[in-house]
Amino acid sequence: MDNRVTLFEVGPRDGLQNEKDSVPTSVKVELIERLVSAGIRHIEATSFVNPKWIPQLADAVDVLNQLHREDDVVYSALVPNLKGLERARQTGIREIAVFMSASESHNKSNINKTIEETYPVLQEVVEAAIAEGMRVRGYVSTAFGCPYEGEVSLSAVARVTEKLLRMGVYEVSIGDTIGVGTPGQVKERFISLIEQFGAARLAGHFHDTRGTGLVNVYAALEAGIRTFDSSIAGLGGCPYAPGASGNISTEDLVYMLHGMGIETGVQLEKLVETGAFMERVLNRTLPSRVLQAMKKTGKEGECGNEQYTAGK
Predict the structure, then answer these.
(1) Contacts with 173 (C-beta within 8 Å, 6 or more apart), sequence order
(2) Strands 42-47, 95-101: parallel, antiparallel or unpaired by DSSP?
(3) Average pLDDT in the 26-45 region?
(4) Which residues pair with 76 in a beta bridge?
(5) What span, in angstroms and rounded, lies between the C-alpha atoms of 100 and 126?
(6) Average pLDDT, whole number, for the chain?
(7) 303 an active-site residue?
C-alpha cells in the first residue's frame, strides 16, 4: 500500500448537523482550530443549506469569518444551490462541496428533487464556483444502500459519479450513508469505480452503524483509495437517513492507519484531546473507541478546564 492517506474531516459540519442543542459559534470555531492544531489539513467547516432545514449550521458565515485560517489548510463548506453559493462568497472560502444521492428516494427526501432534477441545479453551482476560482468536491450518498429502497446498484452509483465529475468536481466522496456496506462489497465497488474514474478522483465516506466502518476503510485501501472522510469522536448522522449513526471516528481511523505504518500528518494525542473537548461541550460520551480507551488509561492528554455546554 502507498504510505500516505489524506484525511478529510467532516465533524464540524456532518458531525454537528444532527445536534439538537445549539452549539455556540465560538465553540465551532475552537473545534476547527483544534483540528488544525492536530494536523488536519482538509476540513468541512460548515454548510450553506437553508438554515430552516439545518438550524444548527445557521451561523455558517460567522463561523468562517471568525476563524483564524491557516494558509496550508483547505476549508470547505457544503453548498446546495446558487443562493447557498452567494452566502459562501461572503466568507472568501476557496472550496465548496455539492451533494446528491445514488438512490431516488433518498435524493427526494434529502434535496426534495429527483436525481434528474438535481443535475442542472448542481451544474449551475459548480460552474459558478469554478468561474470564481473555487474548487468543488462532490458527495454521493447511499452508495451502498438506501434507508427507503434497500440495495443500490453499482451502475446507479457510477452514473451519478460520472455526472458529478463531468460537471467539474475534482473528487467524489462515495458514501455509505446508513452503514450497511461490507468489506467484500466495498472492495468490489471501489475496484470498479477506480477502473472507470481513477483512484485520485475518489474518496471513501463510511459510517459505523453496523460496526464495519474501519474494516470497510481497509477494504477501500486495498482497492486503491487514499482519501477518507471522518468525524472527530465519531460525531454525526444523517437527518434524512433514519438510524444512521455517525461517520467513522477520526481518532479511530488515525490509530488504525498509524498502526499499519501509513502516514497521515496528524497527531493522535491532539485528536483525542479534541474529542474529549467535544464530550465536554455536548455533555455526553461520544462513540470514538480510541477516545474512550485513552480516557480509561488516563492518556487522553491535557484537555484544559473549559466548561462549554451546548445550548448554555
Answers:
(1) 8, 137, 138, 139, 140, 202, 203, 204, 205, 227, 229
(2) unpaired
(3) 98
(4) 44, 95
(5) 13
(6) 92
(7) no
Cβ contact 247:15 at 8 Å: yes
Q: Check 193, 238, 253, 291 and give the catalytic one.
A: 238
Give the Cα separation of 169 and 172 in Å (integer).
Answer: 7
What is the Cα–Cα distance from 39 to 50, expressed in whole angstroms? 31
Round the CA-based radius of gyration of the chain to a whole number and report it: 18
Mean pLDDT confidence for 11-19: 93
Distance of CA 111 to the CA centre of its chain: 17
With bands split at pLDDT 50, 70 and 90, how would you rate the model's confidence at 1? low
pTM score: 0.93
Contacts of residue 61, defined as CB under 8 A and 6 or more positions apart, other chains included, come to 87, 90, 91
Residue 304 has pLDDT above 50, yes or no: no
Comparing 311 with 131, the larger pLDDT belongs to 131
Instruction: Give the C-alpha separation, 187 to 173, whole Å.
Output: 15
**3 state SS of 243:** coil
